[in-house]
Design goal:
Elements: H1 2-34, H2 43-58, H3 63-73, H4 76-90, H5 95-98, H6 107-119, H7 124-182
Helix pairs in contact: 2-3, 2-7, 3-4, 6-7
Protein name: Type II secretion system F family protein
Domain Type II secretion system protein GspF: 52-168
InterPro entries: T2SS_GspF_dom, T2SS_GspF_sf
Length: 183
């Protein structure tokens, strides 16, 4: 019995830290091969950046300059996408192709820029509408997820507590009533 305890302690002290160090080394080596990891971006980050872009464009900034300035103050994931789009526009890519370098969450903002570029209209008002659309869509999605979670929480309650209620409350009462009727 004591040999098993010694083996477990030895494994916990020697083997586990070595395996953890190997995992850290391996993940670092794999990340170095893949290049820098992309930081996530949320809908709220995109909506905030869209509003900032609209304000920058309304103040008279050029599109690429507005993208670069908003990227300096935006969340990391949003800033990365804005820098990519700004670089693509500097390289002479068309508006629709430049927004392909951003993540899919930028869809309404990209559509606003592409439509405004095609029509020749100022894009600031369209960007504000796109930000509002993003926020409304995210609010509806969160509301739906909350409703789904509420329904999913009712299932365990029904499956666990209803049989317990029947076993502790209904069965004893029925047993007492049947016992008094038979006697």
């Amino acid at each position: 019995m004591s040999a098993v305890v010694v083996a477990l302690v030895l494994a916990a002290v020697v083997v586990w830290p070595a395996a953890a160090a190997r995992r850290r080394w391996w993940s670092t080596a794999v990340d170095a091969e893949r290049g820098p990891a992309r930081v996530g971006v949320t809908v709220e980050d995109v909506a905030d950046a869209s509003v900032l872009l609209a304000l920058a464009l309304q103040s008279g900034r050029g599109l690429v300059q507005a993208l670069e300035e908003v990227a300096q103050v935006a969340a990391p994931g949003a800033a990365e996408d804005l820098i990519r789009v700004g670089a693509a526009l500097r390289w002479g890519r068309p508006m629709g192709e430049a927004w392909c370098y951003a993540r899919d969450v930028w869809g309404p903002t990209a559509t606003a820029f592409v439509v405004a570029d095609a029509v020749g209209a100022p894009s600031a008002r369209v960007l504000l509408d796109a930000a509002a659309t993003l926020r409304e869509t995210e609010a509806r999605r969160l509301e739906q997820a909350g409703g789904t979670a509420a329904v999913m929480l009712v299932l365990p309650l029904g499956l666990c507590f209803l049989p317990a209620f029947v076993a502790t409350a209904v069965v004893p009462i029925v047993a007492v009533l049947v016992g008094t009727q038979l006697s």
